């Protein structure tokens, strides 16, 4: 890519300067070190790490993923090595290995205070540019309701997280929320930098021969192409209501898919399932965005964000 092309793709996401807007979505590229080609990773906008919790999580029973025609379904159970191991091994690796791609640490918890405690443990460590709070997980202490669906828990998670860091905080919301724009306002009022829209959609695939769920956990999260219009609508609703920085995620396979999110109001996008299927696909999307900018004489992708024209 020439310098001119790179310049067209550069965007700012809530104060994080990105060489291009394409991230790898949380949980689909581990902590980067499992990817064969670091060079490819460093050519992207960034990587959102797999979930990080206070303690080690073993995760859900196998099988953990299954496919269906519209994408895939997973129940990984947020398996991860815990915050101490991430601090000791994974963040130092990211700090050493990446020079251009940015890093957001995806944080999960069982209780409101867990998110802030993970951040407190990581905040002075190098190798990251900010955090993404996965509030689509259950608040175990409060009976299992998802943090994101409980306005007071959501506000408290973000307020406490913000008290531990001055770094950018993105809050990742579920596509099942009744009032996505309302939840977005709550997190912004409590100190979040922006939103990641959306997480997986709850679903179940049945193995007909066995008359059992295809996943060991039973239910799981739907990702891939089926999620694209759902994520694009959530992005448009939140952009219209807040004008906040948004990472659009869900169902992106091509540059055109990514452009849908940008036009609906996202500053950046993240890819999960498509990158799991073919790890070279995110770099193709970067090239496709570049070609699109050249073809239509777009000097900066920032002109595209929120440029949707609603039917009269
Ligand atoms: C195998 C797998 C693991 C995931 N793990 C996480 C995770 O740890 N934290 C999180 O916030 N989202 C997680 N997600 C959700 C993705 O980051 C993303 O929101 C979702 O897959 C939709 O994007 P896609 O259609 O491009 O895959 C995971 C998704 C998959 C498929």
Descriptive notes:
The protein is α/β, with parallel strands linked by helices and 312 residues long. The protein has a single domain, classed as Aldolase class I (TIM Barrel, Alpha-Beta Barrel), CATH 3.20.20. It is 34% helix and 19% strand. It has ten helices and 16 strands. The strands form four sheets. The chain has an eight-stranded parallel beta barrel, surrounded by six helices. Strand 7, helix 4 and strand 8 form a beta-alpha-beta unit. Helix 5 packs parallel to helix 6. The N terminus is likely disordered.
Rg, alpha carbons: 18 Å
The molecules bound to the chains, other than polymers, are: flavin mononucleotide
Shape assignment: globular
Q: Percent helix among the residues?
A: 25-40%
CATH topology: TIM Barrel
CATH superfamily: Aldolase class I
Q: What structural class do you assign from the helix and strand content?
A: alpha/beta
Percent of residues in beta strands? 15-25%
Number of strands: 16
Overall tally of structural domains: 1
Q: State the end-to-end distance.
A: 39 Å
Overall pLDDT metric: 95
The level 1 CATH classification is Alpha Beta
The largest sheet has its strands arranged as: 3-4-7-8-9-10-15-16
Low-confidence stretches: 1-5
Number of helices: 10
Largest sheet: 8 strands, parallel, barrel
Indicate the CATH architecture: Alpha-Beta Barrel
Q: What oligomeric arrangement do these chains adopt? A: single chain
SSE order, one letter for each helix or strand: HEEEHEEEHEHEHEHEEEEEHEHEHH
